[in-house]
Amino acid sequence: MIETFQEFKETKNIDRTTLVSVLEESFRNVIAKIFGSDENFDVIVNPDKGDFEIHRNRVVVPDGEVMDENKEIELSEAQKIEPDYEVGEEVSEEVQFAKFGRRAILNLRQTLASKILELEHDSLYQKYKDKVHQVVSGEVYQIWKREVLLIDDEGNELHLPKQEQIPGDNYHKGETVRAVVKEVQNENNNPRIILSRTSPVFLERLLEAEVPEIQDGLITIKRVARIPGDRAKVAVESYDDRIDPVGACVGVKGSRVHGIVRELCNENIDVINYSANTQLFIQRALSPAKISSINLDQENHKAEVYLQPEEVSLAIGRGGMNIKLASMLTEYTIDVFRVLNEGEADEDIYLDEFSDEIDQWVIDAIKAIGLDTAKAVLNAPREMLIEKADLEEETVDQLLDVLRAEFE
């Protein structure tokens, strides 16, 4: 038992008081199974000596009047132990657990193992529950199709599902991987720690570790939007007018974000100044595009952004990435429109007039997103037509060809 106590203390992170309590409870469970009740038993565990004592307490009753052999003892039997016992007194005698037989010993062992496992699970759950949204490290132990299994420095299993991995991530057994604790599941008291490398919180924590001004509370990360492995936008705010929050986060020649970019598989990180002014914030979020004007629908969190034709592609970005990140960051649905030159609006034509060249269901799909005229469609970004109208690229291209031909 001494060796067992030492092992638990060193490898299981279970303190002495808790272990003594578990041992006592395990003994009581076995006693209750043997005698029907453990109420009249005293169990004393001594971890220093590595032994234990079990005492059964029974009340002395007149001979022939024993109703419960576990809790009562005849006077004549009690006097064999001590001659001066009298009726009504309590007899305490030590019980030798070894005499209960092999089955009882095995029962105790199984009960104790079950209780220890339960304690380990509770300890693991509490430990990682307090680490949710914190960065942890683990060694790659097993690589599967749907997840990677990591082991922390105490041998606990950490799970990194496929959907929480950055698309460019490539894992090798034995290497160390960093991720943020996304959640701790605890179904049937069996903790499962889920990690994430795609969460915006992961980027947030990496920035906090790299930028002393964030750690000191001089700069706050207000919002983070990510398309993992491709690009991210971070809005920051300074509480000290002397500190440029964007410059402090990026560092000299990008020195502070270089390590983070490498960690995130070369994910480009745009850092912008946060503003409580929604129009200004949207304008900054769509950088590097320069905006001509913005119409806001604050109730529905929608923004119509008007730009010069040469600025539209910058606002949308490759594959619509810039406008998508800007929408995620500002929490506004952003629609981009080209600014019409004077006189162009007078030449516009309603979409319904093209019904002989364009299928009606296509016209209806475009009108459903608020575009009624040919010029409105031509001024809208191609990516927006595909995504919002839920049309195939080929269909949109045919539509645009027909409309352009009308004005050429």
From TrEMBL:
Biological processes, Gene Ontology terms: DNA-templated transcription termination; transcription antitermination
Superkingdom classification of source: Bacteria
Domain Transcription factor NusA first KH as annotated: residue spans: 197-274
GO cellular component: cytosol
Residue ranges of domain NusA-like second KH in the record: 279-338
Cell compartment(s), UniProt: Cytoplasm
GO molecular function, one term: DNA-binding transcription factor activity
InterPro entries: KH_dom-like_a/b (IPR015946), KH_NusA_2nd (IPR058582), KH_sf_prok-type (IPR009019), NA-bd_OB-fold (IPR012340), NusA_N_sf (IPR036555), TF_NusA (IPR010213), TF_NusA_bacterial (IPR030842), TF_NusA_KH_1st (IPR025249)
Domain called Transcription factor NusA N-terminal: residue spans: 1-121
Entry keyword set: Cytoplasm, RNA-binding, Transcription, Transcription antitermination, Transcription regulation, Transcription termination
PANTHER family, per database record: TRANSCRIPTION TERMINATION FACTOR NUSA (PTHR22648), TRANSCRIPTION TERMINATION_ANTITERMINATION PROTEIN NUSA (PTHR22648:SF0)
UniProt record similarity statement: Belongs to the NusA family.
Subunit structure: Monomer. Binds directly to the core enzyme of the DNA-dependent RNA polymerase and to nascent RNA.
Role according to the record: Participates in both transcription termination and antitermination.
Name by which UniProt lists this protein: Transcription termination/antitermination protein NusA
Native source species: Xylanibacter ruminicola (strain ATCC 19189 / DSM 19721 / CIP 105475 / JCM 8958 / 23)
